[in-house]
């Protein structure tokens, strides 16, 4: 079994919980409260800044030139393309670019990005690969699930189309293959890879909850 498949097997319950989350199911049928989606846009924008940093740092630790080149390219793509799409989402919902930039990370977003950046600085290349995998594979799987649930086009259709598009599929497939290469090359890192994968996957689930409840720093 490919190591990426093994990781998905041990994270099966987390994937099921994500697919059943009301943020996911309500976005799929177009009934999600706009305030919850706006919270997701602002928090995910801040998340992506550190997700790009994770790819850049992963590129710095890569052992071969082609992997280094690709990881640094993904970091640039996140900053230039995916964050641009978030700015478009934000504009559609009346959120200015300055508001995006000044958004304070909610506790869950802060916990997730701190975990990713710490892993990037302190972890092995294989551990970094496993930590970044749940976001890409998860968004593809969840968006495909949303597409299956959706009956008609609605205001959230562009979200579903973005994460089921060919470009995102190709990026996810490369990430999956990268995890498999790390699993084969570094068998001594399998436990660390599992821990990193499961932590990121759990935080992915909590991210939906954070957006749905519009989590902040309330006392």
Protein model, in words:
- Helix 2 packs parallel to helix 11 (190-213), helix 4 packs antiparallel against helix 8 and helix 4 runs antiparallel to helix 11.
- The model has no long low-confidence stretch (mean pLDDT 94).
- The chain has helices spanning 3-10, 12-20, 22-29, 34-61, 65-92, 97-102, 107-122, 125-149, 157-164, 166-185, 190-213.
- Helix content is 82%, strand content 0%.
- The chain has a single domain (3-212), classed as Heme Oxygenase, Chain A, CATH 1.20.910.10.
- The radius of gyration is 17 Å and the shape is globular.
- It contains 11 helices and no strands.
- It is mostly helical and 219 residues long.
Mean pLDDT: 94
Q: What is the H-and-E element order?
A: HHHHHHHHHHH
Number of strand segments: 0
Number of domains: 1
Could you name the CATH class?
Mainly Alpha
Number of helices: 11
CATH architecture: Up-down Bundle
- Helical content stands at over 70%
- Major beta-sheet overview: none
- Separation, N- and C-terminal Cα atoms: 47 Å
Strand content: under 5%
What is the CATH topology assignment?
Answer: Heme Oxygenase, Chain A
Quick one: overall form?
globular
Structural class: mainly alpha
- Output the radius of gyration: 17 Å
**CATH superfamily annotation:** Heme oxygenase-like
Uncertain segments: none
